[in-house]
Amino acid sequence: MSTASVPVPTALTRRKPPASVRRRRFLMAVANHSMLIVAAVVFLAPFGFIALTALMTNGQALSSHLWPNPFRWQNFVDVFHQAPIFRWALNTMIYACLATLGVVVSSIPVAYALSRIRWRGRNLAFGLVLIALMLPPVVSVVPLYVMWAKLGLVGGLGPLIIPNWFGDAFSIFLLRQFFMTIPEEYLDAARVDGCGELRILATVVLRLAKPAIAAVALFSFLYTFNDFFLPLLYTRENPSRWVLQIGLSEFRSLHQVQWNLTMAATLLVMAPVIIVFFLAQKAFVEGVTLTGVKG
Amino acid sequence: MASSAAATAQPLDRTRARRRAAWRRRRLVLLLMAPWLIGFSAFFGYPLVMSVYLSFTHYDLLSSPKWIGTANYRYLFTQDPQVGEAVKNTLWIIAVMVPLQVVFAFGVALMLARARRGVGFFRTIFYLPALAPPVAATLAFVYILNPATGPVNVLLKHLGIDGPLWFQSPSWSKPSLVLLGLWGVGNIMIIFLAAILDVPRHLYESAELDGAGPLQRLRWVTLPTISPVILFSVVIGVIAGLQYFTQAYVAANVASGQASQAGDQTVNNLGYPEASTLFYPVELYQHGFRYFNMGYASAMSVLLLVVAFTITVLIIRNSRRWVHYVGAAK
Question: What per-residue confidence (pLDDT) applies to A103?
């Protein structure tokens, strides 16, 4: 680019637009922002209604009042007396943590073999990963249930956790895409220093791929925390193994619980996800900026 | 180690060392790939083959599978009184929800892309509902839309409108689920926003020079440029629609509001009200895991697989006409 000739054209294009155009642009911006604010209020409204109802007395929740009067904070204590929420939360944590750990531990080596080591059949293997990614999970549910039933594991959390220790297609895909971006020089430098592939994976790659691994762990955690279908399939008959999502779905029918307490429970189940999101949002942004250095 | 030895040794030793290195390499790959190889065979290949086999049998988990030929498929296609309803409901939710979600997400993303201030703030707000656990979100909507005292109908009443029965009415239960789906549209919105912000400025500028107005620029610049992303979200949406389960299950369960005991087999709320939320996966779940007709449920899942595969291929084939890939991948 020629820096010398720049001033004249910019002076030409930067010329102030006529007043009518500026006014129209200003009005457009105002209209756009008003629409955004209206949309934001609509998007937030359900959260607001949940929170308000969670603070009502039962009578208020059944009336057409929208604003609690008085505020009944006691609801958040009562919720825990109505149902074994701690039990459910513990089961959820067992499921989410062990599954996430399994996904991370088992997917990293696979992604590494699929990205940084050359071997015959690698493309075929990667194609199979993509196919596994596209297939609707509902399709394989019946034979898997039969398999776990034969192994005597139906009713517990095993069938939910164990498959995660054998590589997860989405995580493998995501990690592989990230590993591909690591410059070969870093790995070569380690090889020259006499590192074996396993050492390279354990030191160089893992350190460079921290943001991607964090993302994979986060996605896996959110997915398992929110998961309803598999826990329903395997633990429906065994309430002592219920996770939060199953408990919440049965919460109202369990003891004919009132709406105000149901909404308090709903809020409690939503809270961890939203908190994790706000905590991890920063880590995400940091991760993205870190990956930007690669250029 | 091996290479330094080979450098000083005879050619024969060298080939042997090379062979040993190749073997070690293969062993390493095998070791790294092991978790996935086992997982892929046990949790993907095996169930796929077993599904096809079981679909030709009668199997109730108690006695061993009994071969009955194509009886399951014949019943599925010609006799099952409920499966027609389930297919209709599933087609309805896909035909209505997917386009609405795409248009809605595009509209919101467009507004966000044009905003001058507070983009991060608004983006977070629009994304939050997508994070909410589906069970919690569904429960919240069943309450918010409850006909008598739900906030939405109360607000509508202030406007002089008698709100519908929402989840209690067979004709409004699916639209209620669509509202729930639109609320949780954040994922698509984020993808669209990134795509819109990625449209090269010079395309807009040259369109403007050619005298294109804002709407024309949207039609002839923005839409074609982000069409691969639209295709992606349509494919994902259709596949998700074919598997639509959690929201339908929870909504029917909660809205029916019967005093069903936990794990009680006798009370069946699936599809409430009047089978209007009985989607194909719900029907599959009912046959497989309430009635334990594993053979029949397998036949249903094989059909689902074939349909999902066909639809994906068809969409991607037809997309050549309207999807433009600009330049190569970065």
Answer: 96
Q: How far A4 CA lies from chain B's nearest CA (Å)?
A: 22
Q: Which residue of B lies nearest to A33 if distances are taken between CA atoms?
A: B115
Residue A22 has, within 13 A of its CA and on its CB side, a CA count of 5
- Which residue out of A32, A36, A103, A218 would a mutagenesis test of the B interface target, given it has the greatest number of B Cβ atoms within 10 Å? A36
Q: Which of A77, A109, A142 is the last residue of a domain?
A: A77
**How much is the average pLDDT of B163-183?**
93
Whether ipTM exceeds 0.90: no
Same domain, yes or no, for A70 and A122? no
Those of residues 262-291 in A touching chain B at CB distance below 8 A are: 262-263, 266, 269-270, 273-274, 277, 281
Say whether both A122 and A54 belong to one domain: no
| A13 in any annotated domain | no
In this structure, the answer to whether residues A93 and A191 fall within a common structural domain is yes
- In this complex, the residue of A29, A110, A270 whose CB is nearest that of residue B132 is A270
Please indicate whether, in this complex, the C-beta atoms of A146 and B61 are within 8 angstroms of each other. yes
Q: Are residues A129 and A241 both part of a single domain?
A: yes
**What mean pLDDT do residues B55-63 have?**
92
Task: Quick: pLDDT tens for B79-108.
Answer: 888 899 999 999 999 999 999 999 999 999
**Which pLDDT score is estimated for B108?**
93
Give the end of a domain, one of A58, A77, A96: A77
The total of structural domains in chain A comes to: 2
Closest alpha carbon within chain A to B185: A43
Compare all CA atoms of chain B with the CA of A250 and give the residue at the minimum distance. Answer: B262
> How far is it, in rounded angstroms, from Cα B146 to Cα B144?
6
What are the 10-residue block averages of pLDDT along chain A, 295 residues in total?
Answer: 45 68 86 91 94 87 81 87 92 96 95 90 90 82 93 94 93 88 85 84 86 87 94 93 93 77 92 88 56 34
DSSP chain A: --STTSHHHHHHHTSPPPHHHHHHHHHHHHHHHHHHHHHHHHHHHHHHHHHHHHTS-HHHHHSS--S-SS--TTHHHHHHHHS-HHHHHHHHHHHHHHHHHHHHHHHHHHHHHHHTS--TTHHHHHHHHHHHHHS-GGGGHHHHHHHHHHTT-TTSSHHHHGGGGG--HHHHHHHHHHHHTS-HHHHHHHHHTT--HHHHIIIIIHHHTHHHHHHHHHHHHHHHHH--HHHHHHHTT-GGG--HHHHHHHHHHHHT--HHHHHHHHHHHHHHHHHHHHHHHHHHHHHHHHHHTT-
Residue A254 has a pLDDT of 74
What is the distance in angstroms between the Cα of B278 and the nearest Cα belonging to chain A?
16
Q: Helix (H, G, I), strand (E, B), or coil: what is residue B233?
A: helix
| Domain housing A56 | 20-77
Least confidently predicted of A13-17, B210-214, B302-306: A13-17
Asked if A53 and B139 come within 8 Å (Cβ–Cβ), the reply is no
